[in-house]
Design goal:
Elements lengths: L12 H6 L12 H15 L9 H10 L5 H5 L3 H13 L7 H11 L13 H13 L3 H12 L3 E3 L1 H6 L11 E5 L4 H17 L2 E5 L21 H13 L10 E6 L5 H6 L15 E5 L2 H9 L2 E5 L1 H8 L8 H10 L5 E5 H15 L3 E3 L1 H7 L23 E2 L5 E3 L4 E9 H4 L5 H18 L6 H10 L2 E6 L1 H7 L7 H29 L18 H4 L8 H6 L8 H14 L14 H5 L13 E6 L3 E6 L19 H12 L10 E4 L19 H13 L4 E2 L2 E4 L17
Parallel strand pairs: 2-3, 3-4, 4-5, 5-8, 11-12, 15-17
Antiparallel strand pairs: 1-11, 2-11, 6-7, 8-16, 9-10, 13-14
Helix pairs in contact: 2-6, 5-7, 7-8, 8-19, 10-11, 16-28, 19-22, 22-25, 22-27
Organism: Weissella minor
Family: Belongs to the ribonucleoside diphosphate reductase large chain family.
GO molecular function: ATP binding; ribonucleoside-diphosphate reductase activity, thioredoxin disulfide as acceptor
């Protein structure tokens, strides 16, 4: 029975998995998931996987049928490849849930061209990743294989999916572009969005430099169309372009809250917006300087400034003017055209749109740049709001060529699996291996189709190592999400991640005798970056967290002082090292909770195309851990913000922090709701947004709302069950 002929009536695993949703004797039937997993392997995977008599025969088949790139294999003696496979198979890897196995084989495993048979399993995909990213280095390949087969490290979807494949998209996860205020740049930006969406992940584009609608062009009044028509062009471009059919094209546009088109920008997401301006699939975000929060606090009117006039007066693009510092000067300057709006009206509009659509994302741009250790200015972010890197504008001539080549952003991502990494025998070796794997993606990226992105990658060697499984770590160790022990663990884990990624990047710089561009102008070079770590001891505060970290070397002040000296002397290879991306299907494969978020349901329900509903139990769910698995929709979002803030102080880029809200809010959740309506209001989101800003959060990703009419039965009946 081939995959093409697979008849749901002839297999048992879907029914077994669905029994997770049916309590028996007031108990969640967790054993049914293991039965479903066993049935899936026996009924689907084993009979539908091509068999080979040897690894050599397998590889010959893969190369002859153009499944894998022969250049990857040619870097190694085949006897080593066989040893690598022997090691991987000795580890006896087993999926822990039906969802993990199903997601891997549905989304990641190579299949025959007709989709009828699998030609690789999990061990094969791990081996291909290890061989590809090690680039001929046998020891690194073994180290990578060790990290991945034990699921301490997980490359992001495009990297894991495409590694070593002969027919593939790019390995890079995401990109960031900016348009300048001329038609040549706009045209080039649209072309770049098409090209990047075709080969890679999501594309973020900042439009703040573009003059507003109604602005004059060459003396002709009301000639400019503003940012909304450009958004429409970009949305159509992303709809058209995708990664060789493997991933839908996706993009986000960002605009400053001080841009005159800000209200029209937000209105494009309204359900009742005119079809000519309504944006359906393009994501949107706003960059928010400190001055906006100040104006809100004072309940003052705010001025919106013409980007064209600002650029003319300051001699630099709108994105690069410090609005917080220059606000009063810009208000007083009669040469800068400006309009006014009440700051709190705009604040309420932001929250109203977040209630209705989940957008816009929020980038606290001054917070970002205060923490940015690299020379230059961060002006935008990516599709998920966690990539925050410096950019320089380009100048495009009439032939669509670069008169001045600026820098835009590409970033490749990977995640640590927190629960599994804490079990490593050598934290430093594990992180060093991961940094080398991610750097390999940066080094191997050929992005000449967008020279500004290519230039940025070549200068910065930026990577983004993140994390997933934080809530699982809390539950497994009997910590409540957001409590003192949870915050203590989060602080220590990301301090460790910061220290060892710095050490790994420093090792690379020393080995290669190369640093990222303008290292000497960075806060790393003058040592100031390290002050927070060298001036005060940083150690676990609670006994439980001390015990969790007992087997690892937690860097002390002396370690940080030594690292500071090494970095100042030899530099860093990677300008950026860490970013906390959202994790989707790859979390299931790892049997990890997503990113740093709390879970939504103890038994999660997923709607799969052509299959129906599949159920996924939270990792390590049992009678002991169930009290520690509170749904995100029942948690005070200030606890989520606190957890992210504990991590953010150590993360050089950003974090894709989602807030989970209920349309009807339990009174006990937020003290400000007492005596007021129990419906979610713009006030609730305003308070949380300002709280996040006060805690040093760099970005707020999506706002997810659980509405009254979305109440479900079945799985939700299990929420209060004992196990």
């Amino acid at each position: 029975m081939s995959l093409l002929d697979l008849d749901q009536n002839k297999v048992t695993y879907f029914d077994l998995n669905n029994e997770l949703n049916i309590p028996k004797d007031n108990t969640i039937q967790l054993g049914k998931d293991r039965e479903a997993l066993d049935a899936f392997m026996a009924e689907n995977v084993i009979p539908n996987t091509l068999k080979f008599d040897s690894q050599k025969e397998h590889f010959d088949y893969l190369i002859e049928n153009v499944f894998i790139d022969p250049k990857v294999v040619e870097q190694y003696d085949f006897a080593f490849i066989e040893r690598l496979y022997d090691y991987l198979q000795e580890q006896n890897f087993q999926f822990k849930s039906f969802m993990a196995a199903y997601k891997f084989y549905a989304q990641y495993a190579l299949k025959t061209n007709d989709g009828a048979y699998y030609v690789e399993g999990y061990v094969d995909r791990v081996a291909m990743n290890a061989l590809f990213y090690a680039n001929g280095d046998e020891q690194l390949a073994m180290n990578l294989a060790d990290e991945m087969i034990h699921q301490r490290y997980q490359p992001a979807t495009p990297s894991f999916l495409n590694a070593a494949r002969a027919r593939r998209g790019e390995l890079v996860s995401c990109f960031i572009l900016q348009a300048t205020d001329d038609m040549n740049s706009i045209g080039r930006t649209i072309n770049s969005a098409l090209q990047l969406s075709k080969i890679g992940g999501g594309v973020g584009i900042n439009l703040s430099n573009l003059r507003e609608a109604g602005s004059p062009i060459k003396g002709i009044e009301n000639a400019a169309s503003g940012v909304v028509p450009v958004m429409k062009l970009l949305e159509d471009s992303f709809t058209y372009s995708n990664q060789m059919g493997q991933r839908n094209g996706a993009g986000v546009v960002y605009l400053s809250v001080f841009h005159p088109d800000i209200m029209a920008f937000l209105a494009t997401k309204k359900e009742n917006a005119d079809e000519k301006v309504r944006i359906k699939t393009l994501s949107m975000g706003v960059t928010v300087p400190d001055k906006f929060y100040d104006l809100i606090k004072r309940d003052e009117k705010m001025y919106l400034f013409s980007p064209y006039d600002v650029e003319r007066e300051y001699g630099t693009e709108f994105n690069y003017v410090d609005i917080t510092a220059e606000y009063d000067n810009m208000v007083a300057n009669p040469a800068i055209k400006k309009t006014t709006i009440n700051a709190r009206d705009l604040e309420n509009e932001l929250s109203k749109m977040q209630q209705e659509s989940g957008y816009p994302y929020i980038i606290n741009i001054d917070t970002v740049n205060r923490a940015n250790p690299i020379a230059g200015k961060v002006i935008s972010s990516n599709l998920c709001s966690e990539i925050l890197q410096v950019q320089k504008p380009s100048i495009i001539n009439n032939e669509q060529q670069y008169e001045q080549l600026g820098t835009d952003v590409s970033c490749n991502l990977g995640s640590t699996n927190i629960v599994n990494l804490m079990e490593t025998d050598d934290f430093e070796k594990s992180i060093d291996t991961m940094v080398r794997a991610l750097t390999s993606v940066s080094d191997a990226s050929d992005l000449d189709i967008v020279p500004s992105v290519q230039h940025g990658n070549q200068e910065l060697h930026a990577i983004g190592l993140g994390a997933m499984g934080l809530h699982a770590m809390f539950a497994k160790n009997h910590m409540y999400y957001g409590d003192e022990e949870a915050l203590d663990f989060t602080n220590m884990y990301f301090m460790m991640l910061n220290y060892y990624t710095l050490k790994a990047s420093n090792n690379l710089a020393r080995e290669r005798q190369e640093t990222f561009f303008d290292f000497e102008k960075s806060a790393y070079a003058d040592g100031s970056y390290f002050d927070a770590y060298t001036e005060a001891p940083m150690a676990p505060k609670t006994e439980k967290v001390r015990q969790i970290f007992a087997k690892h070397h937690v860097p002390n002040q002396a370690d940080w002082v030594a690292l500071k000296e090494q970095v100042m002397q030899d530099g860093l290879y990677n300008a950026y090292r860490m970013a906390i991306a959202p994790t989707g299907s790859i979390s299931y494969v790892n049997d990890a909770t997503a990113s740093l978020h709390p879970i939504i349901n103890k038994i999660e329900e997923r709607q799969e195309k052509k299959i129906g509903k599949i159920y996924y139990p939270a990792p390590y769910l049992d009678a002991d851990t169930i009290p520690y698995y509170e749904s995100a929709y029942n948690i005070d979002m200030r606890k989520v913000i606190d957890v992210y803030a504990a991590a953010q102080q150590h993360v050089d880029q950003g974090m894709a922090m989602t807030l989970f809200m209920r349309s009807t809010v339990p009174e006990e959740l937020y003290e400000w709701k007492q005596g007021r309506t129990d419906k979610m209001t713009t006030r609730d989101l305003n308070i949380l947004r300002n709280y996040a800003y006060s805690k040093g959060i760099k970005s707020i990703y999506y706002i997810r709302t659980y509405t009254d009419d979305m109440e479900e039965f079945g799985v939700n009946e299990c929420e209060s069950c004992s196990i």
